[in-house]
Amino acid sequence: MIRKTHELRRLSLRDYIAVVLSFTALALESVLHIIVLFLPKPVINWFYRRSRALFHRASGQQKDRSEEKKASERILNARDFGELCSIYGYTHEEHVVLTKDGYLLGLHRLPSRKGERTRNPGASTGKPVVYLHHGLLMNSEVWVCVTDPVRALPFVLVEGNKYSKKSIHHGPNSTKFWDFSIDDFAWHDIPDSIEHILELTRAQKLSYIGFSQGTAQAFAALSIHPRLNEKVNVFIALAPAMSPPGLAAPIVDGLMKASPTLLFLFFGRKSILSSATMWQSIIYPPIFARMIDSSLIWLFDWHSTNITMNQKIAAYAHLYSFASVKSVVHWFQIMRNAAFQMYDDDVLSPVVRTSVSSYRPARFPTRNIVTPIVLLYGDSDSLVHIETMLAQLPDHTVAKVLHTYEHLDILWGKDVHKDVIPEVVSALEYYCSRTDHDDAETDNVKMDTPVSE
After folding, report:
1. Which residues are catalytic?
2. Are 451 and 400 in contact (CB under 8 A)?
């Protein structure tokens, strides 16, 4: 650690006002949450029907009878990953990984083509293995909750928090259960999941595709586990996240960067936004979709014009999953220091702002990654600053820009089957077709210089 002197100053009056208003809003939400929990089901259903009628009357929308609308309704009503897969004729397997730090992670596997079933579930198929990992506050359902199957990546292994809410040491109601950050994903979750997948499939290597925080976890894991690089033939990063510049909402961005631990005061030390699923279940889906849209515009300046409303209604119902408050605090620490660093336990009081850090937390040595890296990012994604990211990655990194794409567009955009999936398939075909001998000979050959288009 490099020690420095540091200057301290109190939060400004505007910051204090923001803190008070935030606490007031959270308190009001908590009260409403409790009231709703005690309301009889018929009363909740009445409010739901009235909100639906008022929405259609106010919006003046005609009844949508399109195929996309029908698919959207089926996806909206699907309860889990298995039901989402069955909509399009795929069968899945469920697996559980016990990590070295005692967490039980759920893995979903699609081992066969549409309409086919494997004779021996859990057995090796002899096919190349692709492991997909979702982003923050998400679960495996985000990969398959699309209104058209041509916009979903098939034959994948997916891990998700909704399916990983268990530990052999602590229950989910315990604060200790939620005491994890990106560091823990990197030290345990990613390497242990990859080891389990390779053992199950009897493959020598796999391809890793991450979205958002799923890319950050891989960047971190590959940087601190040199031998893990030998097991991943390519790392494809969709909407890559490493050191985001910040949020679009100035007051939230400034306040959280100044004192990331304020989040602990707002949300406690367990899961963040844990009441989201309750509100989602009682609010009419089109209204809920517009609420999410408004939040995304305010926080990230994402307007989601590349995603159809039917797709939003379908996908937003499967968007939220549980995540620790500590993980979000970790992200604000990264934003504050503009560096992809490990979690900083030596933090100052949340009511004090520091202009110069007392030391520099350890950074993930991402330039040491040997695995080939392909970045696919949108030029309208406020969380991606490609020049900063490339400066922290090895020279063999390839970056490809997706014009007019925002963050979530890469998952659910109406043209992902034209713009995103072909790029992913091309990278998979190239790197999976290389033999181990070829890999050994070309590891040190410099690839095309990454350029932001």
Report:
1. 212, 381, 407
2. no
The predicted model scores a pTM of 0.82
pLDDT, tens digit only, all 453 positions of the chain: 344 434 444 556 666 676 677 777 777 777 777 777 777 888 888 878 888 888 877 776 666 778 888 889 998 888 888 899 888 888 888 888 888 877 788 888 887 777 777 666 666 666 778 899 998 888 889 988 888 888 876 433 333 344 454 555 556 666 776 667 888 889 888 999 999 889 888 889 999 999 999 999 999 999 999 999 999 999 999 999 998 988 888 878 877 877 787 888 777 787 777 777 777 778 889 999 999 999 999 899 999 999 999 999 999 988 877 788 898 999 999 998 889 999 988 655 444 444 454 567 889 999 999 999 999 999 999 999 999 999 999 999 999 999 999 999 999 999 999 999 989 989 988 888 764 434 333 232 222 211 223
Beta strands in 81-220 (DSSP E): 93-98, 103-109, 130-133, 157-160, 166-167, 206-211
- Exposure string (b/e) for 351-363, b if CB count within 10 Å is 16 or more? eebbeebeeebee
Q: Give the structural domain span for 48.
A: 8-59+70-442
How far apart, in whole angstroms, are the C-alpha atoms of residue 420 and residue 430? 16
- The answer to whether position 332 is within a domain reads yes
The DSSP letter of residue 101 is T
Q: What is the total count of domains within the chain?
A: 1
Question: Does residue 424 fall inside a structural domain?
Answer: yes
Residues 411, 393: Cα–Cα separation, whole Å: 24
> Which of 150, 98, 161, 107 has the alpha carbon at shortest distance from 130?
107
The CATH number linked to 359 is 3.40.50.1820
Residue listed under structure tokens 């490809």: 400
